[in-house]
Amino acid sequence: KSELSKVVCCGFFLQVLNEKKLQEVDSLWKEFETPEKANKIVKLKHFEKFQDTTEALAASTALVEGKLSKNLKKILKKIVAKDAHEQLAVADAKLGGVIKEKLNLSCIHSPMVTELMRGIRSQIEGLITGLPSREMAAMCLGLAHSLSRYKLKFSPDKVDTMIIQAISLLDDLDKELNNYIMRCREWYGWHFPELGKIVTDNLTYCKCVRKVGDRSNFASSDVSDILPEEIEEDVKAAAEISMGTEVSEEDINNIIHLCDQVIEISEYRTQLYDYLKNRMMAIAPNLTVMVGELVGARLIAHAGSLLNLAKHPASTVQLLGAEKALFRALKTKRDTPKFGLIYHASLVGQSNTKNKGKISRMLAAKTALTIRYDALGENTSAEMGAENRLKVETRLRLLEERGV
Prior knowledge:
The structure is a single chain. The protein has helices at residues 19-22, 35-41, 53-64, 70-79, 93-103, 111-122, 124-127, 133-153, 158-189, 194-198, 202-212, 229-240, 249-283, 285-291, 293-303, 306-310, 314-319, 323-332, 346-350, 356-376, 383-402; strands at 6-9, 12-16, 42-47, 88-89, 107-108. By secondary structure, it is mainly alpha-helical. The protein folds into three domains: 10-152, 2-Layer Sandwich (Nucleotidyltransferase, domain 5); 157-267, Helix Hairpins (Orthogonal Bundle), CATH 1.10.287; 284-402, Serum Albumin, Chain A, Domain 1. Strands 3-2-1-4-5 form a five-stranded mixed sheet.
């Protein structure tokens, strides 16, 4: 008596009726062209109905992850234990290994099984009777949506998305702030040009303009909470002899409104930077210690995710962000660039011009190790990053002392 194989597919089991047909893998699809032909190859052995979508989702996620769910284990013990001498065909080799280990059942996984599964899926409605096609389609669609939401919710890369969005927004805020501040200085400079030379800090400048308004108010205004005493006296003295033109109250109101925007965006930028710093220390602590949170976040954003960045060799990490210069150099047969985004790391900035290439190469090598440790390791400490940073700093000091 030949052994009859069974196929496990989510909530039902199918028994193979004609094993000889399965040996012809290349032409197996012909046996599933119609429901009538499919029913001659396999028949329904057992059907297990899910109670609700939650149970179906739990079973599906377990199958996707190659795990043996409680319901499947219970069904296998009850149904397959009666025919323990037969083989169980499974689509996932990992799941087959778990079943064999836990239940001591013989499982097979081969191209034949893969082709068989494909045929079963194509004629699933004909093999399982009593389920209208509309209900089957609605069930599949609902389960697909639930599974997608689960994957998105528990995706290990989803935190990388937060970092990518945060650093992109931070760069956009910096550009907007520069434009707003430049416009504010030029606009108010027509009225009080001397203030721009005395107060160099942009945020302090905007706070002064917002509090005082017209330059004639500086004499009677107290800006000691914004400016140091010496600078405050210089500003008041300059306001009395200013060469600026007179402006209307409406002009001043618009300038003050622009200053409000600058201050508000600056405060939000500070808040966003703190968020990015905390997120980077939680997700990639060793990378953050090596190159800083801003450079680390830009490397992750440029690669697409922390896992993608971990797949890059050190030479690619060194040149990330300098692709245009690299291909231009290769095309013109000139010297290739020595650094990309990693140029903005503090360790590269500390070295002199002669040693920047050597330090960036060593920093990229150590950074690549820390990235892989953060992406693939289970430890969340930053000790490895601190050790590697110390090695690079030691190398930097040696180069500076030798004058190499």
